[in-house]
């Protein structure tokens, strides 16, 4: 006796037939082209402090950006979002927005060719901004970073 199949059951059966390792490889390969690699992020407190103390500073409506030429073959970014911004979901959203704009504009603006360490401090008024407003403002400040780094 044949059982009727619905698309959800077929999809579940197909995914169950893939091994966990194959699914993990597929997930990593799918995420890799869009993700910002760990090598291109500032993570340690001393790296942030070095940029704060010796780098240059630019102000924009929603961010304060510190930047410093580095001796690496690529640029790195670090993002700070303090509790003044709001709860964790608001801070995380603004950090995601910042990473997304940076990731998309890194190549067109030639940020990697300049080999900069960039630290972005998100201002409290950014919580009320739309993604479009935030991204336009942050793109403008990134353009200024690239032009100022060339001097």
Question: Summarize this, please?
Answer:
The protein has helices spanning 7-17, 20-31, 45-54, 88-109, 111-114, 131-149, and strands at 56-59, 63-69, 76-80, 116-122. The chain has 151 residues and is of the alpha+beta class.
Describe this structure as you would to a colleague.
This protein is an alpha+beta fold. The chain is built from 6 helices and 4 strands, in the order αααβββααβα. The chain has one domain: Ribosomal Protein S5, domain 2 (2-Layer Sandwich). A 4-stranded mixed sheet has the order 1-2-4-3, with helices on both faces. β1 and β2 form a beta hairpin. The protein is globular.
Q: How would you describe this structure in keywords?
A:
151 residues; alpha+beta; Ribosomal Protein S5, domain 2; four-stranded mixed beta sheet; 52% helix; 15% strand; globular
Element layout with pairings:
Layout: H1 7-17, H2 20-31, H3 45-54, E1 56-59, E2 63-69, E3 76-80, H4 88-109, H5 111-114, E4 116-122, H6 131-149
Helix pairs in contact: 4-6
| Shape label | globular
Give the overall pLDDT as a whole number: 84
What does the radius of gyration come to? Answer: 20 Å
Low-confidence stretches: none
Number of helices: 6
CATH architecture heading: 2-Layer Sandwich
| CATH topology description | Ribosomal Protein S5, domain 2
Q: Give the C-level CATH assignment.
A: Alpha Beta
| Strand order within the widest beta sheet | 1-2-4-3
Amino-to-carboxy terminus distance = 77 Å
- Structural class comes to alpha+beta
Order of helices and strands: HHHEEEHHEH
Number of domains: 1
How many beta-strand segments? Answer: 4
Strand content bin: 15-25%
């Amino acid at each position: 006796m044949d059982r009727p199949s619905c698309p959800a059951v077929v999809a579940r059966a197909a995914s169950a037939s893939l091994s966990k390792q194959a699914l993990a490889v597929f997930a990593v390969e799918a995420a890799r082209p869009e993700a910002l690699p760990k090598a291109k992020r500032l993570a340690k407190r001393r790296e942030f402090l070095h940029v704060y103390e010796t780098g240059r500073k630019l102000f924009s409506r929603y961010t304060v950006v510190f930047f410093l030429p580095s001796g690496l073959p690529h640029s790195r970014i670090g993002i700070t979002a303090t509790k003044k911004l709001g709860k964790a979901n608001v801070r995380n959203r603004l950090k995601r927005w910042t990473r997304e704009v940076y990731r998309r504009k890194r190549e067109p603006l030639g940020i990697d060719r300049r080999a900069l360490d960039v630290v972005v401090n998100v201002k409290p008024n950014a919580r009320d901004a739309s993604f479009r407003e935030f991204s336009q403002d942050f793109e403008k400040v990134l353009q200024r970073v690239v032009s100022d780094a060339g001097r």
